[in-house]
Each structure stands twice: as C-alpha cells, then as structure tokens.
From TrEMBL:
Residues 182-265 form the Bacteriophage phiJL001 Gp84 C-terminal domain. NCBIfam families: phg_TIGR02218. InterPro entries: Phage_phiJL001_Gp84, Phage_phiJL001_Gp84_C. This is DUF2163 domain-containing protein. The lineage of its organism: Bacteria, Pseudomonadati, Pseudomonadota, Alphaproteobacteria, Rhodobacterales.
Amino acid sequence: MKSETVARAWAVVRHDGLTLGFTDHDQTLNFEGISFRPDSGLSAKAVVQASGLSVDNTEAMGALSDSAITEVDLLAGRWDSADVRLWDVDWNAPSNRRLIFRGRLGEVSRSGGAFRAELRGLSEPLNRVLGRVYHQRCSAELGDGRCHFQLSKPGYWSEGVIESHDAGQRFILSGVSGHDARWFERGTFVVQSGAAEGLRGSIKIDLPLSGSRRDVELWSGLGQHPQVGDRVKLIAGCDKRAETCRLKFLNFLNFRGFPHLPPEDWLIAPQVSR
C-alpha cells in the first residue's frame, strides 16, 4: 500500500442497524457493502494503541448534518455505544486495506454545530472491577442471567398512550390499569412509536390516577421528546430488597443479596463483654 494513495475510512453502526460510512478521501469509496462518503466532515486524532490489554483510545470529530449524524439523534442517545471500525485503505484499490481500530463510541459532546466523540477499544470492558459485593440488597439486575426473572410475564409490564407530557420527563398516560401505585418505579419506560421510538428511560415516580390513567416521571428527560398519541411500554421495577423479590416477583430462590448480613452500625458498635 503506497502512502500517497492511503485514505482513512470509518464505518459506524448503531444498535438499530443503521450503518454510515465516512472517509477523508475526496471521492466515495465502496467496500464491505458500505459507501464511505467524503462529505461527512468526520475525522479523528491519531489512534493510540498499545500491546497487552491496554485500552485503545482516540477521538472522532465531525460536523452535525441532517444527512449523517444529527444533533437530535446524539441527544436522544441513538449513537451511544455504536460499533466503530477504522481502516487504512488504498483509494486506488479498496480491496487493499487494513483494519487499524475497532471499538465503540463513548462519551459524546456537542458545541457549535459539531460533535466530539470518545472512541473506546475492544479491551475497554477489561477495565471493569470484577468480584461479588456482599450486601443486604440484591446485586443482580432485574431480568438478567443471575436474576432469571422473565419480564415478559403478564402483570409485569403494560402499554399505554401519552396524553400529555412535561419536557419529555413527566407523562400522563392512558390505558394503564390494574397495577398498584409505584409498581413501575425503578423500572423502564420504552417509547414504542413516533419519532422517539426505541428510546428508554428509568422511572422515578409512578402513580395511578382516575380510571386507567397514570402519572409517570423519569429520572431524566429523553433526548428526543415523545409526543401526545405515542405508545409507550412500562416495565416493572425492583428496589433490590429481599421482601420485594419474595412478594412482588416470587423469585426469592434467585435473590443475590444477603438479607441477614449485619448492618454497618452493628459492625462498629462496642461489644459488651459478659
């Protein structure tokens, strides 16, 4: 590969399958079924790679445009953890190329009509602290491989329609009935139709109103606001207490906490000798 004919090409794939290709060459490149466009304004700093299990890191920068990566989609989190691949490619013969980076988009910032995104290499997950925490509350996530609870069970989810909303954070829903107050707190709010389809939020407050109406507030607003008439799905939440696992989910056999562990106050309290 001659240095004077080398260009860089990027492929970015979102979780919903949308794939975009970019290049710093002045013409479109085509390979692996992707068209890499030259008009994106996407570029990157030098890729930092090390031997062993060190984390690869670099930074991508680009212009926000309606035809590529939009500010609305970034705010909505649609590009969070998107898969990224970077090649050195001979623009005279695209089959002559070398993959030099693969990872995911990390933290994204925006200003002045442009974005800056951190790129995290495949070894990034190896930075996580591993090991079990001994605590009274459950250490599993509701519905994961350690919890084993099936959230698709009847009664643990419900669908409704947005009647009104406040800044995309507090919603009045219709069509949700048969659930106790706070049933969905700490659960998940999923938009199922409209421009915000697929976006998720964590539920802070969940209270029934008259009839089949419900007042639901999220911990933080969704990046793209759902609109009146959009359908949403509510999934039950868990506060990780043993009592909740036993009575609400009937799943105490899979409880991953230690409810009889003495509290910290007991550990530091002076012991009375006999």
